[in-house]
Input
Amino acid sequence: MSTNRAVIVGRLTRDPEVKKTQSGLSVCSFTVACNRNSAKKDDGKNNEPSADFISCVAWRGSADYIGTYGAKGNIVCVDGHIQTRNYDKQDGTKVYVTEILAERLELIRDKSGSNQYSNSNQTSVEDATEKHVQHSMSMPKSLENNVDDFSNDLGINPDDLPF
Output
């Protein structure tokens, strides 16, 4: 069994821009800056802040949502899976791109810190993340009929699954 799931919370690094494919589908590529603590042993300082810049892509309604309401500096929760794709540049070199394909997006706070996007008074990003993960996880429609077969093979009670 393998799992490919990614949930990140961070700030949008620029205003998202929605583009349309030739067939009219909305697509939006954006980057989320996620803070993390790192420890440098050579200078004795611990927990120096640093950031990872995670590339994300959203399609259809999610792309329209982030393009309409998202702005540089907003805190966003992205729930999806990691994908790697490749293409050939004009000079013949192959380029690999790893990104999160967003299945669900939630704007948590604007850059001023207000909760204008949420339905409740969330007091921290951690609380918002936990609430998002607990309440918005759902199984893809294509897998719903296979839950019983899958869970029985592993000895898992379907009632214990979070979706």
